[in-house]
Write a structure and sequence with these properties.
Length: 356
């Protein structure tokens, strides 16, 4: 028997979740956001399940080329744009589309041959204050792109800072519309949260990411309530059982001290597999068909769960760290992070199983 940890990627769940995104924005095209190795799910694996998307969005130049080489003919956009002139020339030759978010990136297009027909997403800073042209610089940048003989279609783009939170999107929509006044180009603004909550942000293309993987962008609303299915299930098994007397502690630093006789299951999963080391006591773990919680500090290769009230649990019992039956959003919340970070942190040593 190999070490029992696996990450199961549910391909049907990915396809289903893309359908949920489409149902919310029936008049928009969809860029499926598969940056960061498809949020840890595997670039080409996720692309296969999401092949009905109108386009793909990635960060990494290599990922974009891999998608082209794998035969995907739809739009493939680089969300941070080109990083040098070589990427601009090769990107145009491979028919990639690119974000242009700054003067420096505009100048990278200088070397493009006339007729290259590079599609550009012109990024507007509507209030996130990371990337993008200031609203009063957008008109000039748009004109330069339109006049460039190597540039094809131009789409206006912006990104929301708090579509999942209290501040919402109206303040950014206002800034965007002011910057885009008089420019008759397609628009793309919506991430998952805006796709689900704000139809006025859908415009021509939506850009859902996290919802495709079956996680909710909203703190107060579960993925299940949104009709989303978990795409990644990280599971392992109990490989040993320890019985504690009152006063005994578990693991490094003794962060858990038993107050009563306590049965502890040792699960073959640790931070070297991608489980967060900072997860505190009582972070949810599904053991068999019941939920319990972690005890003690997560170590490199192991974590511990309380199975005192689960006499049926023992060596060989399945433990779901997140996914099916243990929503990743609950685990992330307990660990003081977000599902994005957990998914992306899955490490290469965890064997992946694809489930249709
Ligand atoms: C990552 C990303 C998205 C997707 O965001 P989610 O919150 O995962 O839906 C959309 N647009 C841009 C520019 C991004 O970088």
């Amino acid at each position: 028997m190999p070490r029992p940890i696996t990450a199961t990627i549910n391909l049907a769940a990915l396809t289903h979740n893309l359908g949920v995104a489409r149902a919310h924005a029936p008049h928009a095209k969809v860029f499926a956001v598969i940056k960061a190795n498809a949020y840890g799910h595997g670039l080409l694996r996720a692309a296969g399940a999401l092949r009905a998307a109108d386009g793909f969005a990635v960060l990494e130049f290599d990922a974009a080329l891999q998608l082209r080489s794998a035969g995907y003919a739809q739009r493939i956009v680089l969300l941070e744009g080109f990083f040098d002139r070589r990427e601009a020339v090769e990107g145009a030759a491979r028919r990639l589309a690119t974000v242009v978010h700054s003067e420096e990136q505009l100048r990278l297009l200088d070397g493009l041959a006339a007729g290259a027909r590079l599609d550009v997403l012109l990024k507007i800073n509507s209030g996130m204050n990371r990337l993008g042209f200031a609203p009063d610089a957008v008109g000039a940048a748009y004109s330069r792109l339109q006049e460039h003989p190597g540039v094809g279609k131009v789409t206006l783009m912006s990104h929301f800072a708090d579509a999942d939170g209290a501040r919402g999107v109206d303040w950014q929509l206002t800034a965007f519309e002011r910057a885009a006044t008089g420019i008759a180009a397609p628009r793309t603004l919506a991430n998952s949260a805006a796709t689900l909550r704000y139809p006025a942000t859908h415009f021509d293309w939506i850009r859902p990411g996290i919802m495709l993987y079956g996680s909710s962008p909203f703190a107060g609303q579960s993925a299940a309530a949104l009709g989303l299915q978990p795409a990644m299930t990280l599971a392992s098994e109990i490989i040993s059982v320890c019985t504690l007397k009152p006063g005994d502690t578990v693991g490094y630093g003794g962060l858990f001290r038993a107050e009563k006789p306590t049965r502890v299951g040792i699960v073959a999963c640790g931070y070297a597999d991608g489980y967060p080391r900072h997860a505190p006591n009582a972070t949810p773990v599904r053991v068999g068909d019941r939920l319990t919680g972690t005890v003690g500090r997560v170590s490199m290769d192991m974590l511990c769960v309380d199975i005192t009230d689960m006499p049926e649990a023992g060596v060989g019992t399945r433990a779901v760290l997140w996914g099916e039956g243990n929503p990743i959003d609950d685990v992330a919340q307990a660990a003081g992070t977000v599902s994005y970070e957990l998914m992306c942190a899955l490490t290469a040593r965890v064997p992946v199983i694809e489930q249709d």
